[in-house]
Amino acid sequence: MISLLQYGPISSWLLLNTPMNESYGKIIESSVIGLFLATALWIMLKPNSIYAYIFFSALIMMHTLIHHQVGGTHFESLTPLAHSLRILFPLACIGFLSQKYVTVEWLLRTGVSITFATHGLECVLLHPVFTDYIISLSQMKWEQHTAEAVLRIIGVVDIVAALGILIPFLSNVFVVWTFLWGFATAFLRFWEYGVSNVGEFLIRSPHFLAPILLWYLWNKVLFERKSPPAVRN
Amino acid sequence: MKADILILYLLLLWFGACTPGNLRKEPTGKQQVAHVRIYWTEDPSSHAHISWTSMQKGEDHYVVYDTVSHASQHPRKYAFRNENSKDGKITMNAEDRISGVPEAYFHHVAVSGLKEHTKYYFRVCSDSHCSDEYYLLTARASGNHLKVLFGGDSRIGTIQEEDNTPSKHQARKKMNRLIAKIVADDPEIMALIHGADYGMRSTWKYLYHWFNDHELTITPDGRILPLIISKGNHDHQIGFNENFHLGEVSDRNADGYYYTTPFTNQIALITLNTETSMAGYQYQWLKKELKTLRSSNTWLLVQYHKPAYPAVKSFDREDFERVRKFWVPLFEEHHIDLALESDGHALKYTIPIKENAPDPEGIVYIGEGGLGVPQRKTDNTRWYFQNGGHASSHHHVWLLELDALQMNAYAIGENGDTIVSFNRPVRKQP
Lengths: 233, 430
Hints:
The complex is a heterodimer. By secondary structure, chain A is mostly helical. Helices cover 79% and strands 0% of the residues of chain A. Chain A contains 12 helices and no strands. Chain A has helices spanning 2-7, 9-17, 22-45, 50-70, 79-82, 84-97, 101-124, 128-137, 144-164, 171-193, 198-203, 206-226. Chain B is of the alpha+beta class. Chain B has helices at residues 2-16, 94-99, 166-185, 204-214, 238-243, 248-251, 281-296, 318-326, 328-333; strands spanning 33-39, 48-54, 61-66, 80-83, 86-89, 105-111, 119-126, 129-130, 134-137, 146-151, 189-194, 227-229, 259-262, 267-271, 299-303, 338-340, 347-349, 353-354, 357-358, 365-367, 390-392, 396-402, 406-413, 418-425. Chain B is globular and about 60 Å long. Chain B starts with a helix and ends in a 5-residue tail after the last strand. The model of chain B is unreliable at 15-30 (pLDDT under 50). At the A-B interface, helix 1, helix 2, helix 3, helix 4 and helix 6 of A face helix 1, helix 7 and helix 8 of B.
């Protein structure tokens, strides 16, 4: 919702590509914001309703598609892939509710993997916003080439993590990394640019919530299922 | 089961994002040599980039030029001839091909050693196909007088004449015709500073029409107003680098497009690129450039695409925060005279701002993109538009008149009327 309010991609697309004037575009955008709010309430009030999660996922997917169509961002062709986890996370919640844990596991693995691989690729391709984050965190002391070298390393690590999360016997290591890095990069959004950018943090919350859920799944749910029943005296 | 089908459907939709959408047919261009334009970069009194599009690959691409007209004569009559410095086939993706825009080739020729404030008549040629004769007026090498136009955002969306959005396409054409008229009426106007965003994307489907429409800025007597371009967030594709090539300036430190244009020895414009690192090489370059230029220039202007003080979009957006965080402190330290911004699709000028507060000694930010892009509603409640600032939704181009004592700025609307104006006295040199 905050992202829609700040960036206005729906009204922007309608203004540029249809005869519609801006005020009608804004009404449609406000309606979509209302739908997001209503769906959030729906989930809060009826957390077991699978339709609420499906609808939520569809809304996020629509947001992604419109962002992609409007363009105007770095590496915009990668946008749908970068948003994978946001779209898949609500679907994983459905699997969790219906106790289809293996489905949940692979939805999350796939989502984390695609999202981290995409971000890794953006790092390797030297996303300028990421470069500036690094320079800014160094208190403007690092030169651009140093920041870019660090960014390339981060990119490679992200891609390795994206692959590692798919390998069952290595996953526990990478789930810790993806949680930490997913949280850090989301948190950076409003750490660097103020509380008003909290929406940018929240929209990335699946980046660290999904690894937590995966860890929980492996170490609590699936592990306990595989464990032999306790011997009764 | 129902849930599984729904999930599958959503996944298919999501993957659909990676494929081109519905496209319409475009008319095919027939001109062999078209889209003639001029770019100014770092030495407008003696240097220019002349660019054009040819519809055939050809072998021999060149510019002929002279200080006297040879309009009805053979190209050999011109005193000077320069071969192209960069050319190639314009990249086309599937969407471009489906849209019907023709395959074409870009050509760029750098011409140097020109005399200051002189008319140069020229023609561009690809093999035996030569354009009509046009002329370029070079900048003065000295003085503190200047007239220049500034505008941004001439992108439009679905760009068919025959579809149901003709008014949105016509606005860009109307603004371009207006620019031609303004320049014809006042030949002392030296250039058009363009704040970027030329198409929805910088792909040929959009740029082909942009260049077609840009030809409308040519005056009836054949004058082509030089462009001083910046790069915007809708200019990320390869088509931008191919068609807006500026020589070394394009390649400077990875994704360049930041440079200083000295209109005279006392008036300079710094063009910045909001689409590359703002805190890296560009930041270091800007620091040095401001230090050098401030002491030697009566007027020092900056232009860049994304605004520090937006009129439409959220003030708190990360991309605007970055401009305020990395660049604005430098602008304020070196007492920039005017900041030219785009991106918002609106008309604005702020009150003078310093340290994020009103200050008579601060910087005025103008903009914010009205060269044909559909206009958006502005947020007039923002503090920087109160008590002397302005924000509204109008197609417009800014006319800036600078002299030894003051700067006059006029926002000229699509009908040629002055919508708003303001003036700023020359700063006492700090």
